[in-house]
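Blinded run. Sample ID left blank on purpose so nobody reads anything into the name before looking at the predicted structure. Input follows.
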Amino acid sequence: MSCFKLKRLPESLTYLFNLQTLKLTDCNSLLELPKSLRLMKNLWFLEMEEFPRLHCTPPGLGELTCLRTLSIFIVGQDASHQIDQLKELNLGGNLSIQGLENVRNFEDAKSANLMRKKNLISLSLSWKNDITEESAEYFEEVLKGLQPHENLEKICINSYEGSRFPNWMSTLAFKHLNDIRLKNCGRCEHLPTLGKLSSLKSLKLKGMNCIKYLGTEWVGNEEISFPSLKILIISEMPNLEEWIIPDSVESFPCLKHLKIKGCPKLTQLPFLPALRDLNICRSSLALVGSITSLTSLTSLVLSELADLDVFPVGLLQNHKSLEDLQIVKLPIKTLSNVLDNLSALKNLYIDRCDNLEFIAEGLQYLNSLENLDICWCGSIRSFPAVILESLSSLRSLSFQHCKILNPLSGPLQKGTDLQRLDIYTCWEMKHLPESVQQLSALRKLLIWNCKICDLPNWLGSLQSLRVLRIRDCKPLAKRCKKPNGKDWPKISHIPCIEIDLKIIQDLDPYIGDWN
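Blinded prediction complete.
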C-alpha cells in the first residue's frame, strides 16, 4: 500500500487472517496501524519505512509468532508495548527499535532477545532527543542489554546519551559488521575501539559533541587498524580537536572516501595514503592546508569555508591525479592560484561563490577539462568566448543563475568540440552570443529563463545540433511555435525540440537522453 495522505489503516484490514505480507511505502502521514493487528496470526512480513508521524506500533505484536520481518517497533510505556514483545519473534532483515527511553534497565533491554536473532542484518536503535537528566543514567545499561547476534551487518545508534559505548561494539566476534552509524550521541566522551572490526567498510559519526580526540582509543592496538574501511563521514562534531594515527599502527589502508563537515576545531588530517575523495564543509581554514600532502586525491569538494577568501599558496600544486573539483559557497574572488597544475582535471563545478569576479585566470591550463558548471555566482560579469580555444577537451558548459553575466562574449576564432551548452537565468544576455555559431560540434542547447527575444539566422548552420530546449522565455517561446512562429524556420532542422516542458518535435527516437 502506498498513499502519501493515508493517516490510518482500517481495523477491518485485520480480518484478512491469511495475509502473510503487509508492505507500506510512501505513507508519510501515517499515524498508526490497526490496533487489532495481533489477530493476523499468519503475518510473516510487516515492512514499513520510518514514517516521521508514526507515534506507536500496535499492541501485542509479540503474539505474531510467524513474523520474520518487522521493520519498526516502537517501545511504549504499557505492558503491550514493552520491548519484551520482541522476545519470541524470530526476526530477520532490518529492524528499527524506537522509543528506547521507555526501557529502564539492563534486564528489560535483554528481554528483547536480540542476541539470539541470528537472521537480523540491520539494526537501528533510537532514543528521543528530549531526554531528561533523570532518564539519562539508564542509557549505558540499556544499550549493553541490546547486544545483537554476531551475524549483524549494519548498526545505527541515534540520540544515545551515555558517556561511553558498551564493549560488545568493538568485539572481534562481529566478523560481518560492515556499516556503523552513530548519530547525535551528544554526551558520549569515548568511542569504542572500532579499528578492530575487520569487515567495517562504512563509518558515519554525526553530532558527537563531547568527542575531542580521535586517537589510540578508537584505533586500538591491532597490527592493522580499520583494515577494510572505505567510507568515513565525520560531521557536526564542534569540539573535535585532533585526529591522530599512532606511528606503531598501520591505519586506514583502504580509506578512499572522507567527508569532514561542521568540525571547526579540527586543524589537521592524518596522512591517508589510499584517499581518493575528500569533502571539507563548514570546518577550519587550517584543515584545508592538510590537502597539500594528500596527493592521491581524484575528487575534492570545498564548501562553506567562511574564512577561505584566498586559496593557500601551492594547495593543489602536486595533485596530478585530481579529476573532479567542486568549489561551493566560498568567499574567494579569483581562481588564479589554484588551477595552474591540474592537468588531469575533468570536471569543475563552481557554485554560490558570490565574491568571485574573475573566472578566466587559470582555466587555460585545464587541458583535460570536459565539464564546466558555473552556478549562482552573482559577481561574474563576463566569460570571454576565447577561453574555449584553450579548453580543447571541453564537452559540456553550463551557466546557471549568474544574473549579470554575459556569457561567451567577444569573438571565437576557431571552432571547439563543445557538445552541450546550458544557459539559465543570465538576464544580461539579450541575444544568443555570436560566438556560438563557431561551435560546430554542438549537439544540445538549453536556454532557460533568459531575456532573449529572437534567434539568429545563423542557427541553421549548426548542423550537429540535435536537441533544443527552451523554458521560461515567453517572447522566444512564442516565436518558436510550430509551424507559424517567426523563428520556426531557423530551428525546424533540429530533430528534438522542447518548449516549456512540451515536446514539439521528436524526429530522432535514438537520441534518448534529453537531459
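Unblinding after everyone has recorded impressions. The CA atoms of residues 201 and 507 lie 48 Å apart.
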